[in-house]
Automatic annotation (TrEMBL):
Record lineage: Eukaryota, Fungi, Dikarya, Ascomycota, Pezizomycotina
EC class name: hydrolase
Family: Belongs to the glycosyl hydrolase 3 family.
Keywords tagged on the record: Carbohydrate metabolism, Cellulose degradation, Glycoprotein, Glycosidase, Hydrolase, Polysaccharide degradation, Secreted, Signal
Annotated source species: Sarocladium strictum
Molecular function per GO: beta-glucosidase activity
Domain of life of the native organism: Eukaryota
Protein name: Beta-glucosidase cel3A
Amino acid sequence: MYSKTLTAFTMATQLLARALAQDWESAYSKAQSALGRLTLSDKVGIVTGVGWNPGGECVGNTHPVGSIGYPSLCLQDGPLGVRYASSITAFTPGVQAASTWDLDLIRQRGQYIGEEFRGTGAHVMLGPVAGGLGKIAEGGRNWEGFSPDPYLTGIMVAETIDAVQGVGVQTAVKHYILNEQELNRETMSSNPDNRTTHELYLWPYVDAIHAESSSVMCSYNKIHGVWACESDFAINTLLKDRLGFKGYVMTDWAAQHSTALSANAGLDMTMPGSNWDGGDVYWGPQLQTAVTNGQVPESRVDDMVTRILAAWYRLGQDSDYPSVNFDADVAGNHAENVRACARDGTVLLRNEDGILPLTNPSTIAVIGSSSVIGRHARNQCQDGGCNDGALGMGWGSGAVDYPYFVAPYDAIDERASAEGARVVLSSSDNTASGASAARGADVAVVFITADSGEGYLEVEGNRGDRNNLDPWHGGNALVEAVANANENVIVVVHSVGPIILESILSHDSVKGIVWAGLPSQESGNALVDILWGDANPSGKLVYTIAKQRGDYGTQVVSGNDDYDEGLYIDYRHFDNAGIEPRYEFGFGLSYTTFEYGNITIEAVRPIAPGSATGEVISGGPSGLFEDVATVSVPITNTGEVDGAEVAQLYLSYPPSAPATPPLQLRGFDKVRLAAGESGTATFTLRWRDLSYWDTASDTWVVPSGSFGISVGASSRDIKQEGTIEV
Ligand code: BGC
């Protein structure tokens, strides 16, 4: 009953928002007529923030303009829920949601996040993250985004934007662009070549703009020596001209460095003021002066304001938008989505001798400091910036306060007692007590973690980026001690990204590895679902787990970054360099087995080689987004239990294309199948999926020749192959 009422509420909010939402054209014409009633000082007020948290709530705010009924816009972090609010949901981080490969869950997550922003009166959600893509495994904020694969990230970013904006909340997709590490993020320059920029780092922004994100947040770093927030190339040329972006570009917080230069490069809003405390260092009166003395044309300020007002009108925020109230209870039944993403994003990496699901153990040892609740989960640390106890998300502006936290030990203990089993707990990382708890237990479950976050906080010597890819708190030694004391060990990993597992895998008694990722507030509940087999694991890795750190070929740099690895990041690099990963991109086990049948490839329309055609719509030339082929593969659940398979499609380019990674993800489909049931995985290829960025013509080009289509259970477990001729 409770959940039915909320569903009705959800539907009503959506219908309302959809009814109010308008196309850009009518929103622009409303904005233009409002513009006529504004003074220059009103206009400057709309584009300049008034500081961080002036009312104790939103991290970004602008001047209201009474004459047109425009409020002080409330901008708030962040990608996984409403920051600094109390009765909210701490959704799973992007990387966890992505590991489900489940677009229904991603969409629902976006919608619920949107409802919570709307319910607290925040107009703009500062997210989702389309990049930092995560080219460096240690990158501190990778977990806020989805995956180092641009295709996967692009799809998830678009679904999220569509869902959040579907309930009338603006998105500010971030951090544009090439902000891949925390070290020196506010001083360094990222210098990739043009093709790499387009095919990897711009790719998900194309999806974001195509999904009509209201805003884009420019990043702290420089691009080829020019600040991202005053880069004419990044903002005017790429975003506004080539991608046809109709919304507005805002700075990351205090990422502005000039008055006229940034304005003329296409920047539309400065946050949180033009510096941290809302002082008007660059805009505010300075912008007004720059207009008066002719350094910035007034038409440019008009364009900024038109874009900002149009985004606000387009989502119907001018009508009955709730006022800001961060105490509003907006959580509803949204925890169901958290539990589902935590559960279905859990990746089973090892399962020997059928150790999982558990079969009526009478004693279970639970070991490790991260099995129990810590200070972060009790909200005793700023932005999650401490790291004891269970890990549910990383730290920084992308973290929210937990409304509650179900720790693994508590959920296991409850479930075990219901089954008549006894739990022995060692709640520290002390090897001797871990071994002693494990001795004599039927099964020992050891918890290890690795954490990272935003660089303004240092946690245990890690200033945002991780210092290495090892488990924290002596995780390897703890597992070794337990593995020497018990023959049936399951290691549960809560981590922001890959860790090196070689030491752990060397112990024969480690029979299970459960990659539980970042499960947020529903950690223990989701884990119990998997351990006892109430749910069949169906998550797959959204990054590669290497055998050794050096295998990744990218690292945090101390100066500028020339992106020498080019297109070869994550699995693209492992495949190209012939390096065997420990667990490849797309890998994940199940409690059942799946069989793939014969591939069918059907052309939707003839594909001619050459440059993208069509007028520029949101995202680029319209031809980019046309469907060109469908691929389908029957899949049968051949095991004893119900399950879900994430089938993946990888594309190989014909020899006429310039050197390209051997395989690139271009489709995925999560197929749920009861035991014995058959279904079909289907993939739709768009024109852009077959294209590469041609630097000579500065266009997306589809080369001629034979494209390889590989469909499989992971990037290295290809089951079916075919070709598309162009
Ligand atoms: C972060 C942004 C965030 C902003 C406001 C910055 O430090 O990079 O992601 O939205 O702060 O909190």
